[in-house]
Design brief:
Largest sheet: 6 strands, mixed
Oligomer: single chain
Structural class: alpha/beta
Strand content: 15-25%
Radius of gyration: 31 Å
Distance between the termini: 106 Å
Shape: globular
Helix content: 40-55%
Number of helices: 35
């Protein structure tokens, strides 16, 4: 029998394996292919040709990127699941499941019965590429990341479904002084959670589990997280010695079923296939000629601040620091905005150390000639840097960027800032930041997107950007997620596109993402007439040119586009007109010290992950808190209707006015129970049941039910219910009541009154996916509370059938339950009225939180309400105001009760000068794709600001704080311009 060769071509690596007749491994290699898969495979085979030349061999290709190569070279192909299964059956026959993580794919294969495979679809979160991205973000190699993780003390919750979200979770932890060791372990834990939650889809992982693929082969920290999470011992967690090449070994085993070929022929076909290219979808070039480019650069280079030399200048200066999500920027300016000193560098996960070094450098350059009169900080790390160095002021980054933009173009009406992983766009009206758009779910329109590709192709970002300027045929890559784009780029390379064409194509795609996905512009006029672009990404001339071509108009890019936040902060410091700055002096810096220690606050159910930063002289700064209690101060108790409703609902358990003799009725406290609980509590206690509510939601409760969640894309409020029903089973209740409700009560304010499909039918999904429910009487009938006439008869029939309760008794309970529900609704409206009166008596602004009833759950809103009231707002919810407006037709079909309330509340807010709306949106909510645009439309037409807060299972409130502070800044600026206008009107 001849030798068998298996080639596994994955998304990032090529594995080549040679087996002899006895299945003994003669050769193996594992190498990255940097998107040149055919060349890499041919090179590896060439390296062993001296041993195999002239021999008959059997060869098979497998892997996610193998099919194209196999076709082009006319070599047999086998699907990777079968290849992996062949190797597992040969070497570890009693396996129950395989978990395999690759460069961009993750899969679980269940054995036992039919072979069943689950694979990641649209997202490469939780794969090797994700780990690479995170290591880059932390400025360590993957090996160093692994070593760090083994020394962790605590795990932070981090989203792994997307590299972007993970970055926005990790960055604030690092910026606030979290330990790198803890973050490293948390990254691996995120990969585990993503794999378990995203791929098991409700099927339990048990028995002997084999772990395969490069990441699980090389990273001990990742292995540790899997073993601990799945509670496996050494007999049930198997890490094969050649786990990184297992699919290649399987391909070689499968080769037995295919014909023999001469090794030299196969190698020749593979080498010839390298030059095989297809057609590529291309676009017009960015610049027609060198002259075009020169005119373009001359126009943009004219936008620069006055020249100033720190070595010769004498006088006052002002310092601005922008502690951004991935970079730290600093600017020292003169009174007229001249730049004395600038700094722009990655913060390497430790912004304090970087600012310390730079301050020492600045003081040395200034000597006795220059006096720093003021210092201001902005950005993610604002509070930490401000406290560390005693800066004079902190300001929200939207205001800093507007200050800087207005310095270059006083008429600016639209600012777009594209940074490393975030994109911010603000409209300016009447000299104030009006509406704010941030990229929520995806960083494919940001700088780190291009950087990732530049690195993968072996270029620095600057060189890579220049390549695209004069490309004749930029590739049309569409506007998609980074991961999908990865496959588009690979396909374009296979089809023969040059690196130049790909570079230009990526620049164009960034712009399309920004304009159509984040800003959602219909045309250029939606943005504005005087557009200022900033952020490091716009230093890339190809991106800037693509932006101008897409909009069909010229824009302003200052030469200091990358440090506009710091420049704006310096201008802000100048305008404080301080006699003397409080910033630490050169002398103070000599004794400066900083240590950071993680801890968890247990003063309430939020369990905030705190970082306690200690500086020299015993100064302390605590970050990660959502209220003032961990700081030793009393919590701010401004009126908050979310808290009021939550406490009122949580109190609805026990026997009520009944005796409880009929047993314990469990009710899961989630989704529409936040709306209907007053009804069901009264109903069941009147029937002499004792009502048992599931425990308060928590991360722990979510993890309890995580293994039964069949869909990773459903919203977090729904995912939580799996834990709620399991907890009720554990409590030993006699029955669980969780009915399906297609309709909500008809309040007469919409075109219909549906519940969203998730709220309406989740009880059925739980019945099908939570095995524990088989141990208890689980009741999920369809009920229609809105049908007052016949609901009583229908439920009486059901209660008689299930519990032998007389119909008359049930009908009486129904009547009392309707009255209890009406009383609750009335109470919420009256309390809302009271809170509004309180706000007006105390001259406090009012925020109306527009969301769903279940957004009052602290585990779902992560304490956003505490954050809002801590800024001095009174908080009421949409259901306290929606009845004050009648029915009005909308542009969309207005068929969901909860959304109808939000529209009506927004219409009412437009009539009240002291109110603003904040919309809470659960990540993954389908209906909100419509609601957000409609709500924005209502508010902007009514002259109000629109602020949207996206919430998911991760509790980092960095972006939320920026939005709320930006809203406050915009409200303040509006009231100032309103005062100015009324003053002008008063003048004779």
């Amino acid at each position: 029998m001849s030798l068998r060769i298996g080639i596994d071509i994955g998304s990032t690596t090529v594995k080549v394996v040679v087996l002899d007749e006895q299945n003994k491994l003669l050769f193996r290699s594992y190498e990255r292919h940097y998107s040149k898969a055919r060349e890499r495979a041919a090179e590896t085979l060439r390296s062993i040709s001296d041993k195999l030349a002239g021999q008959q061999v059997r060869m098979v290709i497998t892997g996610s990127a193998g099919l194209g190569v196999a076709k082009a070279a006319d070599i047999d192909f086998v699907q990777e699941v079968y290849a992996t299964a062949a190797a597992v059956n040969q070497y570890i026959p009693d396996t129950d499941a395989v978990i395999e993580l690759g460069g961009e794919d993750a899969k679980i294969i269940f054995f036992g019965g039919a072979l069943e495979e689950r694979m990641n679809g649209s997202c490469a979160g939780g794969t090797g590429a994700f780990i690479d991205q995170m290591a880059t973000l932390m400025n360590v190699t993957v090996t160093e990341l692994d070593a760090l993780s083994l020394k962790h003390e605590k795990i932070y919750p981090i989203a792994s479904r997307c590299g972007v979200f993970a970055k926005s979770d990790i960055q604030p932890i690092l910026n606030q002084g979290g330990r790198k060791e803890d973050v490293a372990a948390s990254i691996f834990q995120a990969v585990v959670d993503q794999t378990v939650a995203g791929l098991t889809q409700g099927r339990e992982l048990k028995g002997k589990i084999v772990f395969l693929g490069g990441p699980l082969h090389f990273l001990m920290g990742l292995r540790q997280r899997f073993i601990e999470t799945l509670k496996l011992d050494s007999e049930h967690a198997i890490f094969p010695e050649d786990g990184d090449c297992f699919a290649g070994i399987g391909a070689a085993l499968c080769a037995s079923d295919y014909g023999e070929q001469l090794f030299d022929d196969v190698l020749d076909r593979l080498e010839r296939s390298v030059d095989n290219v297809g057609l590529v979808d291309t676009m017009p070039p960015l610049f027609e000629s060198k002259a075009d480019y020169e005119a373009f650069t001359a126009r943009h280079n004219a936008m620069h601040p006055p020249e100033a030399d720190i070595h010769t200048y004498t006088g006052d200066a002002w310092l601005g620091i922008d502690a951004g999500s991935t970079t730290t920027k600093m600017a020292l300016i003169t009174a007229d905005g001249g730049l004395l000193y600038t700094y722009y560098h990655s913060n390497l996960g430790n912004p304090v150390a970087i600012v310390l070094d730079q301050l020492k450098e600045i003081y040395q350059l200034c000597g006795d000639r220059i006096t720093i009169r003021g210092a201001a900080v902005t950005g993610y790390g604002e509070e930490l840097i401000k406290n560390a160095f005693n800066c004079d002021a902190g300001l929200v980054e939207t205001v800093a960027h507007y200050k800087a933009a207005a310095h270059f173009n006083p008429d600016v009406d639209f600012i777009i800032d594209i940074g490393g992983q975030d994109m911010k766009c603000f409209k300016i009206r009447n000299g104030a930041v009006d509406s704010i758009m941030l990229n929520e779910a995806c960083s494919s329109g940001c700088g780190s997107f291009i950087e990732t590709f530049a690195k993968a192709l072996g270029y620095s970002i600057a060189d890579f950007a220049k390549l695209g300027l004069f490309a004749r045929h930029p590739v049309n890559l569409g506007s998609r997620c980074t991961v999908f784009m990865n496959s588009s780029v690979k396909q374009a390379q296979k089809d023969g596109a040059s690196v130049e064409d790909i570079s230009a194509g990526l620049s164009i795609s960034i712009v399309k993402n920004a304009v159509y996905k984040v800003i959602r512009a219909a045309n250029a006029d939606d943005l504005g007439q005087h557009i200022v672009v900033q952020g490091g990404t716009f230093h890339n001339d190809a991106v800037l040119r693509a932006f101008e071509l897409e909009l069909g108009r010229n824009v302003t890019r200052p030469t200091i586009a990358g440090i506009m936040g710091a420049f704006g902060a310096a201008l802000f410091a100048r305008d404080l007109h301080r006699e003397k700055s409080t910033i630490l002096t050169a002398e103070d810096l000599k004794t400066f010290s900083h240590t950071a220690k993680p801890t968890t606050c247990n003063l309430c159910t939020n369990h905030c992950s705190l970082t306690v930063n200690t500086f020299d002289g015993g100064r302390r700064f605590v970050s990660g808190n959502r209220c003032s209690r961990p700081l030793g101060k009393a919590k701010v108790e401004n009126p908050d209707l979310m808290v009021y409703k939550y406490k009122k609902l949580r109190a609805l358990e026990g026997k009520g006015s009944g005796s409880g003799v009929r047993g314990k009725m469990g009710i899961p406290f989630g989704l529409n129970m936040y709306e209907n609980l007053p009804f069901w509590f009264e109903f069941f206690t009147r029937l002499n049941f004792e009502v048992v509510l599931s425990p308060e939601s928590s991360r722990k409760l979510y993890l309890k039910g995580q293994h039964t969640i069949p869909s990773d894309t459903v919203c977090y409020p729904a995912k939580l219910l799996h834990g709620h029903v399991e907890a009720l089973v554990d409590e030993g209740v006699d029955a669980i009541w969780y009915p399906c409700m297609s309709y909500n009560n008809d309040e007469g304010i919409g075109d219909n009154h549906y519940n969203c499909p998730v709220v309406a039918y989740y009880p059925e999904l739980l019945a099908a996916n939570v095995p524990a429910l088989k141990q208890v009487k689980y009741l999920d009938p369809y009920v229609g509370l809105w049908r007052h006439k016949d609901f009583g008869k229908r439920i009486a029939h059901l209660m008689q059938a299930e519990f032998s309760i007389p119909k008359r008794e049930t009908e009486r309970a129904v009547k009392a339950a309707y009255e209890a529900y009406d009383a609750y609704v009335h109470d919420v409206r009256e309390t809302g009225k009271k809170y509004i009166e309180y706000a007006r008596e105390h001259h406090m602004p009012i925020i109306v939180a527009c969301g769903r009833p279940y957004h009052i759950d602290p585990e779902i809103n992560h304490g956003i309400n505490d954050l809002i009231t801590s800024f001095g707002f009174v908080l009421v919810t949409e259901d306290a105001l929606s009845y004050l407006e009648g029915y009005a037709p909308r542009k969309v079909l207005n068929q969901w009760t909860f959304q109808s309330r939000m529209y009506n509340a927004a219409r009412y807010v437009c009539t009240q000068p002291d109110m603003q709306v904040v919309q809470l949106v659960s990540f993954g909510c389908g209906t909100d794709a419509i609601t957000t645009d409609e709500l924005r439309d209502i508010l902007e037409k009514g002259g109000k600001l629109y602020t949207q807060l996206k919430i998911d299972d991760i509790s980092n409130l960095g972006a939320v704080t920026i939005r709320i502070r930006s809203l406050m800044a915009a409200m303040e600026a509006r009231s100032l311009s309103f005062e100015k206008e009324s003053d002008q009107r008063k003048l004779p």
